């Protein structure tokens, strides 16, 4: 019996200590070599001067070829394979491009994690020509701009549009599209999809119970009281994941009350910007929802998809979001064939507001970039010109159920999705009264985790409006005082 | 043969040492260098900024929260896991009271052995997602809150993941749960090699189960406990996957569940500041080494020779 438990004696001549000593000595002996090895990931060659434009291959500028692209060089394209898939590129835009330029070979790659695939190529100075920089692995645009890694898109926006040589690409886009991708005066990013923000509500429940769509905050509170009386929760938000979604109605309502000028100091990080009377009033209104327990019980501890799912299943009526919500909750929506959703503009805080009720927040999204070190940047811009053609944009809308930033492109498109159709109608009703703010794109960490967490506390009614303002100001100050963050400004 | 010994050994050592140098030492050295730059992670060159990242780190409150959480994890997770692991292992192997004086585990121990090992075969991602729903609100499928209300303890219901003070303890709980199974198996193996006659002698002398555990089992498996302790402390220094999946990239509400690993990931991939991320990595390297050395020193005991 004892034989089975005998332990193997340690090998004679070595024990752990001397072995470790030898290993350590070997490490020291390799030290200089290790330092030499250290150059492999970080010490790349410095031959790229970041000025891709002068070396970019080009062809003759002509009426057919306004950008002067080389007609025989390959074009490398990376498309984010996420909510939109990549068929819109392979089945629509790329064939359109090749029809005009048959000798240009398109090398198409679909990627789920854009950053993981492309970051090493940026470091090596060998990025692809065209990148759909989107999804969870999105590379931080502000950093790419600050590092001088993006190609200036001014020639694209100055070029004649695909459909009408008398109209430039710039003039064929919805207002705000180029500004959204502009950093300190230079456009670097093409934002292609167009998102409308607002309050999304359960049309079925509203109709069944005869609840009116509120146009003022007072009406909203009255409707909420009626809804709460039936045992349904009036509101949800994106729970523990993203309380910042509530910033959208908050800032939209404040802007309608006092005018779009109040957003400029916010974006420019001016001291006291968050303390504007209209923003305070709006924050107080939002806080009333918590004070009256109008939020879905437990929403503050929920994942955003769970919260939105409960909304789509009829447990709450109002949900702040953008026009992607319908796609995002398609599964939950499909469970109940009678469910109808619609979008409403955020209600007015006061009848004598500066901007009309129809004002909506809308912005171009879904970024496409051309790296400064791209081998064939001109052809990549030509590809963007294809995307921005009426045919390209209309086809995109039909395929992926999203509006585009091309003006008038969705006019003839019959949108079957009721939510998106209502968003499109709201955008048309808004006319020129389209607002947006830029600080979340310029300073991502200011919005999340910064103001995200503060608004979360406001929605739990843990802090007062004054404390909310104070803490938002503190976050803005942190960003303002951080010299490592490149600042952006806008005039209006 | 004797005179050719060293060239012979060297010839065998070079490939593994070479691989070690390229894949282990060189990344360490590169990380230390990157931590002295303001590299964004996208450019081919870096600007050397000296110790600025370390100065920033010193004033970074969020990093302090993360460090505090890591300290909690390094202390609490190993203690909980080891105690539970030792207890379960001894119950499975020597805890039974027995049929005809034979030393064996409690009844059904062969089933428990398999059950305890279940968490070990689940990936961390699965564990993270499952526990996210254990602690979710009741109307979003929260299992814990449902159980509480089912047994009449509805008053204890909480929005677990919305309460900053609970977050790190939830992470500790989940990590312990997922580690225990492995250590039960590890300690079981060690206990199997303890001679049964020692237990029989103790039984004859009328030793209670607790005394047997304290005086016989623990000293005889101490070597294994020591290895497990160091290994677990290093695992607990990490905790990245659990926190990232359960609480998200910002470490949950108000960042209260943050750990160094998540902070490093956030700096590198969300804030494009590889220099600062590398500095956090160097801090983790230092702390892990300190913890490993401290644990190994602190737990050294006389070896017991069994045969």
Automatic annotation (TrEMBL), chain A:
The keyword Transferase does not apply. Its main location: other. GO terms for cellular component: cell envelope. Keywords: Signal, Transport. Residues 40-68 are annotated as: Disordered. The keyword 4Fe-4S does not apply. It is found in: Cell envelope. InterPro entries: Bact_solute-bd_prot1, Chitin_NgcE, SBP, TAT_signal, TAT_signal_bac_arc. Gene3D superfamilies: Periplasmic binding protein-like II. Belongs to the bacterial solute-binding protein 1 family. PANTHER family: ARABINOSE-BINDING PROTEIN-RELATED, SN-GLYCEROL-3-PHOSPHATE-BINDING PERIPLASMIC PROTEIN UGPB. This is Carbohydrate ABC transporter, N-acetylglucosamine/diacetylchitobiose-binding protein. The lineage of its organism: Bacteria, Bacillati, Actinomycetota, Actinomycetes, Jiangellales.
From TrEMBL, chain B:
It comes from the Bacteria. InterPro entries: ABC_transporter_permease, MetI-like, MetI-like_sf. Keywords: Cell membrane, Membrane, Transmembrane, Transmembrane helix, Transport. The chain crosses the membrane at residues 6-25, 71-94, 114-136, 166-186, 274-296. SUPFAM superfamilies: MetI-like (SSF161098). Residues 67-295 form the ABC transmembrane type-1 domain. One of its GO terms (biological process) is transmembrane transport. Its main location: membrane. It is a multi-pass membrane protein. It is found in: Cell membrane. GO terms for cellular component: plasma membrane. The keyword Acetylation does not apply. Belongs to the binding-protein-dependent transport system permease family. PANTHER family: ABC TRANSPORTER PERMEASE PROTEIN, DIACETYLCHITOBIOSE UPTAKE SYSTEM PERMEASE PROTEIN NGCF. This is ABC transporter permease.
